[in-house]
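protien #1 (seq + structre)
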Amino acid sequence: MTQLEIKDERTKLTDYNDALFAQVKAEGRNMTADEKAKVQENLRKMEDLNIMEASNDLKGADGKPASAFKDVHYIKPVKFSLLKTVRDLANGGKMDGAATDLTILGRQEFRTAGVNPQGSIILPSYYEKRAGDITAGDATQGAEIVQEDKKAILPPLVDKLVFSKAGALFMPGLVGDVSIPTYAGTTVAWKGENAAADDGSGAFSEVTFSPKRLTGYLTVSKTFLAQDGIGAERLLLDNIANAVARKLEATILGKEDLGPTVPQGIGFKLDGTAELDVSDGTITWATVVGLETAVDVSNALQGNLAYMTNSTGRGMLKTIDKGLSNDTGDFLMSEDNMINGYLCYVTNSIGAAYGSGDGGNMLVFGNWGDLMIGQWGGYDITVDPYTAAKTNQVIIVINAYFDAKGLRAVMAGDHYAKSFAALSIKA
């Protein structure tokens, strides 16, 4: 195929997908299985066209190999660099072929998920290596734009979250609103030999997840953008992943009520609807263990059980004696961060404004395997070279879409009640 034929074919495939997305949105419905399959097929075809365009297999208008013509300009094989792409856009330039290819895939992934991205750089959540003759180790055969280890362009978000250490469920690549079924369990009872059995079926319900926009920005100097080293590239990618992870953690562990644009925080129950709020009292061994009891009475004392608090809370727990007379020499938290046989994770995404008077540090206990975090699409990035131009800086705005809830969250008004119990503590 000639370059012109490749561009025409890619435009047809893109227009088809865009028209389908517009139709589905206008009709207010989700895509059918056949429509999803067609979109994925078109994406694969576009990927093949991108690889063909970057290879030496292009032919001239007369069908001869393009290498026979001196006036043919080839696309230089390059690997994607976010640092270079931001620098190009900040300086009024255009994205290179690798950045354009990834943005096409990222935009399609967002639209498949039901989200319309607005940024100039749209990164997919991951870039999957193709099978067959396309090998990641051969130049012009996919090495330029195929991730060799199948990792995300950005460092995997799950590795940045304290929730991953605690065993929470992370689900990327969601499409539209997602309903997860929950089951209250089956009951049985003793009966006489001829007595009729009771209906022992448990109650089914569902927890619905919907995309909510998480946004933030980084300010970087143009001097930093001028760097070409691997270390600078990794630093930028890590900073973006860390910024998203910190905000996501702070929200899930915060105290905001559920809204149309934000997930409810686990600490919500400590802000005016406290069940175990002792921020105005003295934390004791009994109140700490009471968290385990609160989870157990909801039959949720199973799975990935652990405590979680912040650095201030850890310092308090390690210096408060278990005995009421402070005479046992045994403290609420042991030197190895254990509380009553359960590990306590520490993250400063937990603030210090919980409970009565907004002065407590939350301590939460529960089955972290019941916490589900969903992600729609990848990362929508906008480069703003103007707002901070007078200080020789560029602002990088990041948008991503998440939701988080407890899978046992069947109580109205509290989406973590059955899996988690919390109290606010302060010195």
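ok now protien #2
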Amino acid sequence: MTILEMKDEKAQLIEKNKAIFEKADAEKRSVTAEENSDVASNLQRLSMLDLQERNATFESNSDGVPIKDTFKVKAPKESFSLIKAINDRVNQRGLSDAAKDVFALGRNSFSRSGVTPEGDFVLPVSKRADITAGIATEGQEVVAEDKKQILPPLSDKLVFTQLGTQYLTGLVGNSSIPTYDGTTVKWKSEIETAEDGGGEFSEVNLAPKRITAYLHVSKTFLAQDASGAENLLYSNIVGSTARLIESTVLGNAIGSTTQPAGMAYKLASGNENTEPAVVPTNAILVAMEAAVDGANALVGNLAYVTNAGGRAILKSIDKGTDTGEMLCEDNMVNGYQLVVTNSATDAAGTDLSQGDLLVFGNWADLVIGQWGGYDITVDPYSRAKFNQVVIVINTYVDVKNARGVTGTGVNAVDYATSFAPKAIILE
């Protein structure tokens, strides 16, 4: 059998197996035992033909070297490296093809979102596997096919993810989340006229708000070429963004067109829901749960959130009088999980010098939206005397409660119905 005949038979065997699976798919069933046997037999024959073809190829060359072009060895593909791109920028070298392709994808993601990036580099919030989808000029030739993410998702660094919040990417322009307040039914007598029981539709608007952060990175660190250093840099970029989101949402600042509202804003001095910090009791905790229940939000991903100080307070207070059962035990409060993050402010309440924030609510109603990816500017000059490079990060995010109010909703009512914030202190 000639090499050409071997190739022809291999192609026929591949087509036979393909036809078997396509038939099973079309009939919406699994392959039968007989079909499975045929597939296995075809694969066995294919394996034998591969060996025969390789042997025949070597035998046809007197030197024992494969015939030219029969087996092509692919040149190793160049992997994208943010550290290398930063080094190239610092040392005024041209970017690699891999970096150019990745940054082009990043700029494309921003252009779709309606936000214009202005930095040196633009990283997309997408998987490297998506970038190497096999399309020439879009990363096929140069980006390593290791199916890792260029950047860890922002959601991986948010404690809110542990709480089951909604995380939306790829947003375009100002986006709205439709909400529905449910259908109402009533008892009526036999001849009474039925009333319209349809609920009302409304929306919560998300608008891109700029987050900016910066990292000081030593030139010695940038000289590393290990994957660990690369991953650490990525993790710091995303981590700094995540920490700012959490500290803002679990802070006490008023919402505006440039930042989301803080949940502790409702408690802060001078605002419409001013509350002093209190010593927590079981009755207070039950009242918080009742407030959420009264808004028909006692469903979904229910949990308490506080900081380390707040947890210490809850663990030190008896549920009653000498019952031996504390308000918090094993990170559980009244049967609900207690999640601790030091992003939760310790300056809540009318007296902003004291008061650890404690929030109870349905975290599935919290929505975090992100536009585009990460816009990165490399500043090699301002910290040069410290042998450091400043990396400035910009990204666009908004956070709202899906059960908030219609319209802009830029203050305390962003979290009006699904959450019950409280400021707690230990006397």
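Residues 3-59 form one domain.
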